[in-house]
Every structure is written in C-alpha cells, then in structure tokens.
C-alpha cells in the first residue's frame, strides 16, 4: 500500500507551506501537526534536513522565527540558496548587484559587490519596485556577457493573506528583457538537492523530499533520484494533481500524515 | 541603390525613439530633424500614420505633448493599443482588471471593469510595484480560464535618462506565474499593423514602417508584408544588426535620413 514510504533513511523537508504558512504580523502560522511531526522524525533516528528556497531573511533570522512558532530547528540543519550562491560567486570571481530582500543582504556580507559583473535575484517581495527591478535590468543589459543568478525559480508561494509572486516571475522578466537564461541556485537545481543529501549523508534512493511545490520540490527531487511527496498544504492546488510533467510518488494531506506513514514503515 | 524606398504610398512611423526620446521634466526631447521630416512627409502627399505601442497616457495627452515638442500630429492620425484592446474586450464580453499607467485609465472609461474576468497589462512604469503586480497575478490565477491581454510585448525603451523596462517583461512575469500565454494587442501583432494600414488606406506592399525596435517594429511589419526600416536612434543598439531572426530592409541614421531617401525616390 505505502511502498513509497519504505526503505527510508533520510528526509528533506521544505519549510514554507509544509511547516508553516508565512505572512501576517507574527511572521506566519504553523500548519497543524507539523511541529509535532518534526519532533517525531528527530526521535525516530531518521536523518533530517530542511531544504528551503527561502530568501527573505538570513538563515539565522528565519530559524529564529520558526523556533518562535514552536519548531525544533537549528541553522546548521538548513540548506538555503544564499550560501550556495555565495560559494558560486566566489568560485567564479563574480561581483553581484543584489536584487533581494533587505533582510537577506547580510548573507552576502563577505562578497565583493563593487563594479558588478552579474545580477543576483532573490525573493525581494516589496523590494521588487519598478525602480529596483529597472536598476537590476540596467546593470544586466550593460554587461558585455550578462550573468543572471536566480535564488530559486518558484512561481508563487502562499502567505496567510493569499498567494504571493515568487522570484521566478521576476527572473523571467529579466531573462526576457535581456535575452539571457538565468542560472538557478536553489530548488529545483540538481546541485542544490545533491548538497542537501551530502550534508545529510544519505543517498538519493534512501531519501524522500516532502514539499508543497509540484515543480521545485517534487520534480526537482525526483530528477535527483529521490522519491518525493506533495503535501496538500501551502501553495498546493488541486490542479497540481494533473500536472503534465510531474507526478509525485504520493500525495498526503499534510506533513503529519506523511511522517506517520513513513514512521509506520520503519 | 535605395530600392527599399521605391514604390511607396504610405508610411507608418513609430513615435518613441523615432520622433523623440521620452522622459525628463519636459516629457521628452525631439530627435534632431524628426519634426521637419514629419512636415516633409505631409507636404509630399504620402499617406502617413503614427503607429505606437505607447500606453503611458491617453492618445489626447500623448499627442498634446508631441505637439508641444513641435510635431505636426493629431489624435486621429495615431494607432495605439488601448483603443484596439477596448474593441477586443467589448467583442468578447471581457471585464478587465487593469495593470496600467494611471494616465491610460481614461481610455477604458466605457469598459465594464466590475468582477474582472481578465487582466490587461500596459506599460505601467512606476505602477509596476510589487503590490500592484501581485494583485494582477491574484486576479489572473483566480480565474478558471486565465486571460491575459498585453498592450505590446516590448522588452525596454529608452528615456532621456536611460533604458526602461517595458510591458513585455511584466507580461512574461505574469505568463510564467500563471502558466498562460498572453494575447498581444499592439505591435508586433499582425492585426494591429493591418488596422493601421486600413486606416491609412494603403496595401502592405506599398507601405514602409520606420521604427527603432527590431522585433516589434521591423519584424512585426515585415510579417505583415510591409517593408521596414530601423533607425539608429531611440533604443537601437549596434547588436540589433546581428539579430538572429529579423533583418530590416534598410538601416538609416534617423527619421530625417529615411524620409529624405524615400522622398528622393518619388
């Protein structure tokens, strides 16, 4: 019956839409049963890693918020795009113009940002003003060889007050305006899942990704050789179940249900 | 030598980047020789029509600005996307949510905008705030069958203080976020050129389009069976001359030069 849940040694959990819905004055609302589910995973001896495309805050700030919402989580357990982008920038001698959320800027503190030779775009939210997007466009189109690095390619996410446009939409705007293709750091990039698996020390065939995004979470993880489960929380929409390219290994109502099934198979 | 300029009975002129560069406190700066070139065309007996994707103002306001800059132009001579969009909306019983410049809104005065069943996006400029773009996204993704109508698909245009992102970039953002394809009203849509030709009363093979946009002006007009000339003013960039798909019938330094060549062949 629940063959998808067998032979598991490690779990990768998406955060937004799986642990909690972001937004509102408190910064978000936990999804019922998710905090308990994280505790159960930790008690089970399964390996666990949080694999997020969150780029609205430093990992420190983000983790603090999640702890405040009742989650047992630490910075060292989180794989996120900004540190991955910093590694890539250093390796290639790239100096970014940042089109990101103010709260993400400290993640790039060590990076030389003078005389930019690339643009990094994250989920800048309200910082996606016309002036800011246009400034990034001008930097990009002024480069002899435009390099655009995108922290994820999500279409939208769900906050407590509704759906919000994600970084992918603005990545597409800049791609089109400058006739370039962005390099994506974060889910669904294969290298990103592979680094999360390496940090967890579990091979893909023994790991399950649990997420609410049919493309970035489910499709990306499956491309990597992992199993992937879609939760019916967060940005999940019923039409996801007819997605032309991606079919999850299972659907579950929420993280709590996924974890109960997986633990019952140990 | 100048075979491209022979057998002409009518001219379609792009406005921004051909007659003038927009922006700045006066609303723009005429391109040297363009006002005189328009007068020469009118004196020659050639048919003339202005074919613009301008959607930052009503035609009335836009024409008034151009008159102030010294151009002999009237509202009746201008083919623009907003009136074409209004015809389409009425024909199909569509009620738009508008993501456009404040100054364009009066063009839609006669259109029912209650309980929207489509989104119309124009060159909203500073109105492309995150909140406004997100609101349009929410309307669109909430529709059972999302309909997105875009007033042009330009990548960028040139103002006196530099390049500015055009409607096409935001069209792409919404297309991606909602997984829809926009219907484009305005250049390079064939129907738009055809209506400009009909208004002028000249068949495509006897008409020349003069514009600064290699895709929207030149490519679009050629698709329609017209000849098309690219000026080296406005948003023109030298790399346009290596465009993989579109090759103009001629390049000219500016409108004045194009008009002198055409008139010399009459």
Automatic annotation (TrEMBL), chains A, B:
The keyword ATP-binding does not apply. It holds the Pfam family Hydrolase_6. GO terms for molecular function: inorganic diphosphate phosphatase activity; metal ion binding; phosphatase activity. Keywords: Cytoplasm, Hydrolase, Magnesium, Metal-binding, Nucleus. It is found in: Cytoplasm; Nucleus. Its cofactor is Mg(2+). It catalyses: diphosphate + H2O = 2 phosphate + H(+). NCBIfam families: HAD-SF-IIA (TIGR01460), HAD-SF-IIA-hyp3 (TIGR01458). Belongs to the HAD-like hydrolase superfamily. Phosphatase that hydrolyzes imidodiphosphate, 3-phosphohistidine and 6-phospholysine. Has broad substrate specificity and can also hydrolyze inorganic diphosphate, but with lower efficiency. This is Phospholysine phosphohistidine inorganic pyrophosphate phosphatase.
């Amino acid at each position: 019956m629940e063959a998808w849940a067998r032979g598991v040694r490690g779990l990768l959990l998406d955060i937004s839409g799986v642990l909690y819905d972001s937004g509102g004055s408190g910064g978000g609302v936990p999804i019922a049963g998710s905090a308990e589910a994280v505790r159960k995973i930790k008690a089970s001896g399964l390996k666990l890693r949080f694999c997020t495309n969150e780029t609205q805050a430093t990992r420190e700030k983000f983790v603090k918020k999640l702890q405040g919402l009742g989650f047992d989580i630490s910075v060292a357990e989180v794989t996120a795009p900004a540190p991955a982008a910093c590694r890539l920038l250093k390796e290639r001698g790239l100096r970014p113009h940042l089109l990101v959320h103010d709260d993400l800027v400290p993640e790039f503190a060590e990076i030389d940002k003078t005389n930019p030779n690339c643009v990094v775009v994250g989920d800048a939210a309200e910082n996606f003003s016309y002036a800011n997007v246009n400034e990034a466009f001008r930097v990009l189109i002024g480069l002899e060889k435009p390099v655009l690095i995108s922290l994820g390619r999500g279409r939208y996410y769900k906050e407590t007050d509704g759906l919000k446009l994600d970084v992918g939409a603005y990545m597409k705007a800049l791609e089109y305006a400058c006739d370039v293709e962005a390099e994506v750091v974060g889910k669904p990039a294969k290298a990103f899942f592979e680094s999360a698996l390496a940090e967890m020390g579990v091979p893909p065939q023994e790991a399950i990704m649990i997420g609410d995004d049919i493309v970035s979470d489910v499709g990306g993880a499956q491309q990597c050789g992992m199993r992937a489960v879609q939760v019916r929380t967060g940005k999940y929409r019923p039409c996801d179940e007819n997605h032309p390219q991606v079919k999850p290994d299972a659907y579950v109502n929420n993280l709590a249900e996924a974890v109960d099934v997986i633990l019952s198979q140990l």
